[in-house]
Amino acid sequence: MDKLIIEGGYPLKGEITISGAKNAALPILMASLMVEKGCTFFNVPQLRDIRTTLNLLEHLGCEVEKKEKSIRITPHALKPEAPYDLVRTMRASILCLGPLLAVLGEAKVALPGGCAIGARPVDLHLKGLEKMGASFTLDEGYILGRCKKLQGAHIYFDFPTVGGTENLLMAAVLAEGETILENAAREPEVVDLANFLIHCGADIKGHGTSIIKVRGVKKLKAKEYKIMSDRIEAGTYMVAAAITQGELILNQCPIHSLDAVMSKLTDMGVGFEILDQDKVKVKPFQEIKSVDVITAPYPGFPTDMQAQIMALMCLAQGAGTIKETIFENRFMHVLELVRLGADIRLSKDTAFIRGVKALKGAPVMASDLRASASLVLAGLAAKGKTEVRRVYHLDRGYENMEVKLNQVGAKIKRIKE
Ligand code: EPZ
After folding, report:
1. Which architecture does CATH list for 2-17+229-416?
2. Is 196 left (phi over 0), alpha (psi -120 to 50) or beta?
3. pLDDT of residue 65
4. How many CB atoms lie within 10 A of CB 403?
5. Beta-bridge partner residues of 295
């Protein structure tokens, strides 16, 4: 398992180009199961989770052609089974359920286990698909789903689930009749999926709001599509500029989907200069001071930025709180940050962070994707050397993070173990 050795204390300066969004690419690649003639995708990030998704699509019967700047996916004789060995490494594999039911009328998907950040059930996915005519049984850890032809339905989500909205949206585009998704997720990645499906001929309205209306069509036409930029990667590098008291220009940055993050960082003393519609300069304009954060579904502050802003708060003036409302166990990075000298106390779903003058490098352990990003950010500012172990977590969601950071002045070495 690789580790990163970070020598802290170097203000970052230069330009970073943001890659394609992992959480938009995953559902969009799964949706290609529903497009007979095959689609070509651009700006797909080179990540572990993408490789897992492409392996799963090949296992399901798709032809995957990787070129230097694009990936083409053509479904052939599709099979209904997503095996445990693939699903257990990536919970988002459940996103093949809707497309398989829509195209084959059957699916056998390993029930995703829990993960470091919580139980993460899929009950809302199944409840919605049952309303569309699917029936499910659970057998030896697999979800077995069957349906004749999915029927449009009026579905209300108890919680604006991102994956649930994406699964039901994909199922609905080829269903008979109209589907209404109420209390749907509004995340930009859901909008990107909807835009791809519309580009292929789907009839979708209201994406990006909490009520999405879909009128089923007979088939989808093969198209090319460019995946949106990754707002969480961009937010992570905004924090990197702030925590090192540096100055970064982010290219291909989805500024319009980062309001909550940029607003919080501005409150903390980070300055933004918009240089173009997708280009922004990030530079602290004063001593970073602490704030209070509550994570929430989009357009609220994203849970996927919680660990990263916590790293910044560890070195801010004053004290602040972070309340995590989306996942029940998304504070695995706290004890590791404390090993670096942070002053953080936990009480149920809230972390109390008191800024300290400096962090001191030490060996730390990554536990999940965003926790590992938080430890890298803290390491960039900590005095001395920080060793971040199990960086395979980081590789799931960040394309060449240490390469991008070293290009703007960081001192990071990857040790292959
Ligand atoms: C997506 O996960 C993202 N993953 C997550 O990003 C992100 O943190 C999350 O949305 C929230 O924004 C991808 O897009 C691949 P949810 P997802 O369904 O779809 C509960 C990252 O770091 N829930 O909105 O799994 C669930 O347990 C990852 O890139 C149910 O109870 O999120 C959780 O507590 C981490 N029943 C909450 O809702 C369900 O059927 C949010 O889940 C579905 C969800």
Report:
1. Alpha-beta prism (3.65)
2. alpha
3. 97
4. 11
5. 301
Number of neighbouring beta carbons within 10 Å of residue 159? 11
Structure tokens at 247: 């100055």
**Which amino acid residue places its CA nearest to atom 34 of ligand 1?**
327
What pLDDT shows up at residue 117?
72
Q: What type of residue is 26?
A: L
Q: How far is Cα 387 from Cα 403, in angstroms, rounded to an integer?
A: 16
Ligand 1 atom nearest 117 alpha carbon: 35
Query: Alpha-carbon distance 101 to 175, whole Å?
Result: 10
Q: Are 18 and 227 in contact (CB under 8 A)?
A: no
Catalytic hit among 39, 115, 253, 314: 115
pLDDT of residue 342: 98
- What is the share, in percent, of the chain residues with pLDDT greater than 90? 93
CA distances from 317 to 70, 107, 189, 327 (A): 45, 53, 34, 27
Which regions in the chain score pLDDT beneath 50? none
In Å, how far are 20, 149, 185 from 102, measured between CA atoms? 27, 7, 21
25-226: CATH architecture: Alpha-beta prism (3.65)
Residue 159: CB within 6 Å of ligand 1? yes
Ligand 1, residue 125: give the atom nearest the CA.
40
User: Which pLDDT value is given to residue 285?
Assistant: 87
Indicate the top mutation candidate among 304, 308, 333 to test ligand 1's pocket, ranked by most ligand atoms within 8 A of CB. Answer: 304
Sheet order of strands, 224-226 included:
62-66, 70-75, 39-42, 224-226
In the chain, list all ranges with CATH 3.65.10.10.
Answer: 2-17+229-416, 25-226
Which tokens is 295 given? 């994570």
CA nearest neighbour of 337 among 302, 374, 303: 374
Mutate to test the pocket of ligand 1, among 161, 181, 374, 393 (most ligand atoms within 8 A of CB): 161
Residue 111: predicted pLDDT? 85
Give, rounded to a whole angstrom, the gap between the first and last alpha carbons of the chain.
5
* 147 labelled catalytic: no
CB of 29 shorter than 6 A to ligand 1: no
Is the whole model's pTM more than 0.85, yes or no? yes
Which amino acid would we find at residue 385? K
Q: Give residues with Cβ within 8 angstroms of 256, minimum separation 6.
A: none
